Amino acid sequence: MLAFALRRTGIALVLVWLVATLVFLVIHLIPGDPAELLLSQGGVAPDPAAVAELRERLGLDLPLIQQYFTYWVGLLHGNFGTSLQDDHPVAAEIALRLPRTLELIGGAAVLALAIGMPFGTAAALRVGGRLDRVASVIAGVALSVPVFVVGTLAILIFAQKLGWVSAGGYVPLAQNPGRHLALLLMPAGTIAVGLAAVVFRVTRSSVLEVLGRDHVRAAQARGVGPRLIILRHVLRNALSPVLTVVALHLGALLGGTVLVEYVFNWPGLSGYLVRSVEARDYPEVLGIVLAISILFVFLNLVVDLAYAALDPRVRHA
Amino acid sequence: MSASLASPRFHRLVLPGALLALVLLTVAAAPLLPLADPVKQQVSERLSTPSLGHLLGQDEYGRDVFSRIIWGGRVSLSVSILAAACAGLIGTLLGLVGGYFRGVVELMSVRLAEVVLCFPPMLLALLVVTLLGPGAVTLVLVLTILFTPGYARVAYAETLSARTLDYVTAQTALGATSARVLFRTVLPNIAPPLLVQFSLTVAAAMMLESGLSFLGLGVVPPSPSWGLMIRSARSVMEQAPLLLLWPCLALAGTVLLLNVVCDRLRDVMDPRGAAMGVIPGFLRRARSAALPQATTEPAPSLVRIDNLTLSLKTPAGPLNVVRGVSFGVAPGETVALVGESGSGKTLTALAVMGLLPPVVTPAGGSIRFSRRDGTVADLLHLPEGQMRRLRGNDLSIIFQDPSASLNPVHRCGKQVAEAIRAHGGGMTGEGSARAAKAKVVALFRRVGLPDPERRAGAFPHELSGGQKQRVMIAAAVANTPRLLIADEPTTALDVTVQAQILDLLADLKGESGSGRGQEGKDTEGKDTTGMGLLFVTHNLAVVRQIADKVVVMYAGEVVEEGPVAEVFARPRHPYTAALLASAPESEAEELTAIPGTVPSPAALPPGCRFAPRCGFATPACDSTPPASIEVAPGRIARCIRWMEVA
């Protein structure tokens, strides 16, 4: 298990290096002068003096290898760049906003698993039954409605028409825990709609697949009762694919909460990102992309390790 | 394509397909339709309710909403379709080339494309928008980049499997150029999954495009787009909620249509994925709808199968795959159930255990079993709860493939302990866990597993095939069953291991009958308390080695039954005779293969099932199925010419 963990960590570190290098190269990969590109608006050629100044500020006038070196020295010191607009360090802003985004994703994952897994299991155990058919249709619809549509309609119904909750906003947990959780519910629930549908589908097909395996029949042949068979020989084996798919989606959500944070005014990482993109604040965008991508890689590492803990065969592979 | 146009799967595709075509036609024909100008503002008429001139009313700038929905769909769909097509072209090419040439080419094509997957998709999109600024061209570019790896993966995987197909190999061997093989032979082969991927991608691209437009980073105003319409309607949500609803409906509806078409398309192309709609046996309360028949037959000494008929559910209706099977197993007796694949021997064994696959149901007959407590139960009609108390207890089974029969995620000892604890009566709590564990170690020692303590803590993948089968045997004999069924227990094992397992089974059976003194024997000296063994096999050498009695099955029926020595010496059914002559282990001087194949249960010969392959067949054999005849005490044959056989 230890050797497995070390090897996986090694691979993750290589991926981090790859991602960081790619992010560094992005600006050099596109054709034309990046400084000019960033300053051009609506096809109007930018002021050459401003371009020269930006080039110097971004260090684009230095040799590529030196830029790369400086970049890594900065990264290792926790320096993810500074904003073009106000020289604010990107790392500080990320440290402030990342926990809020993670909280949103975590809340959504808990809700999605709590809804998707029981229904997915029940649907698989009575495949073709009424519950299975109804839940499958609902999941199909839930997967087809874009998350910002769900959020917007939720605000329209629950905030505007019914007045049960406020349309959005954020209150720190320390300041007012009740209000904090109430405000978390709508955005987390919005993300959970699509995610629960995914969990439902994966759980259903995974359980169905395991149900047909010989070891389930063998457990039955030993006289093991139905409850124990479902828990120990079906769900336990069906868990790994569910875990993988959920983790992959959570990774995608690291950037995908943009829309929900925007709709609900949730001051997370994504809102910061959108603002940076709007301002075309290139160092800010790169810093955020880098931070999230590294997180993404490590999330996958955690999943790999959890997978090994669940399935003893993986450890020896 | 495997399904015909008349299949029900295809019918399910028609309605969503037609609706989608309607949507696509409408947005394609937008310039030809008599629609209001989607960008013409009429501020005086802002937020007006639906009227004849403006079917869905006017928005916050007084623009016609209906017209904007259609024109918006035109923008959204054309961006998505264009991007999906571009990504499809590039991704397919990368996947084809990478999968066909492998090696460095694969690294430079498929693996390179997969780097994109290291980034969350929305993030990458925003990065590109930062660099290039918003707009339709940027959108197409972003979506193309994001969806290329998906196609590359599908094309790569399909190419890998298509490459090994015989006719592709044949083409290469005939000297066709790589390009020709790729585009003429491999591409048509992998087209169906790519088509599914395309419809999937269009839907995903629409979601992303509308999301970016909603953020104001996609389509640039004043061009209408559904995402943009939702964005602007949000600000006037309180006064005009309907304004928000229309683009939401249009967007979600179109994506839903695309997804449904994609699902159905997949069903048409890959029928394997469709659910069968059956409930696993252990969750059913009643195991059979048929009522138990009252019987006047004497109680069986162990188990007696009478007139067993099993029916398979097929799309064309039920099919009787096992018909009128009757035989018994006495205590201490070893009965071999012999037949080719598809003869129904395994189904018969599973019926005794009440473990038939969900698509097979008992259609008649009875399986009367005398339980440990002396009562007789019809296993075919026993409620699942009572049946469960017998399984692993009075009745046990060893399956063919020990690797598949052990749950890979649990330790071997724990799985054997399950059998003990399931029938442990009052055994609960800490003490029982320890007692069960001690019993498992004793069992492991008894079935000849070396270092039993360590084996009990091992995971199945840490043991060899023979060791795994020993574990399965340990679980099966844990509660000293009265009847042990072994369903081809050595088929999946190495030849050298097979003999060891057979020896072990013989030993276990010997132990069960011995040491019980005289009361274990009845007046004729027969063993009445020993474990009965029903051994399912197609290996005649094994039968000769271990069995007392042999039951030969052919096409779902018993064709011959009798003591092993007698049947082997003088078979009374041409099939048995042919089987003996064709077995490499037989003492026949020349091996003779049986001509023809086993008939399918859907197309049985009208008379004797074996007649078309039989060297003894006469015209009478083809008219009616022959009945079972008792040709000598304890010997049964289903042949009208039994006297002439061998």
The total of beta strands of chain B comes to: 12
Rg over alpha carbons of chain A: 24 Å
The level of helicity of chain B is 40-55%
- Elements of chain A, N to C (H/E): HHHHHHHHHHHHHH
For CATH, the homologous superfamily of the largest domain in chain A is named as: MetI-like
How many helical elements of chain B? 20
CATH architecture of the largest domain in chain A: Orthogonal Bundle
| Beginning-to-end CA distance, first to last residue of chain A | 11 Å
Most extensive chain-chain interface: A-B, 83 and 78 residues
Give the termini distance of chain B in whole angstroms: 51 Å
Rounded mean pLDDT of chain A is: 82
Protein structure class of chain A? mainly alpha
Spatial order of the strands forming the largest sheet of chain B = 6-7-8-3-9-10-12-11
Give the CATH architecture of the largest domain in chain B: Orthogonal Bundle
Q: What is the C-level CATH assignment of the largest domain in chain A?
A: Mainly Alpha
Radius of gyration of chain B, taken over Cα atoms and rounded to an integer in Å:
35 Å
Low-confidence stretches of chain B: 273-277, 515-527
Q: Tell me the number of structural domains of chain B.
A: 3
Extract low-pLDDT stretches of chain A: none
What characteristic shape of chain B results from the CA principal axes?
Answer: elongated
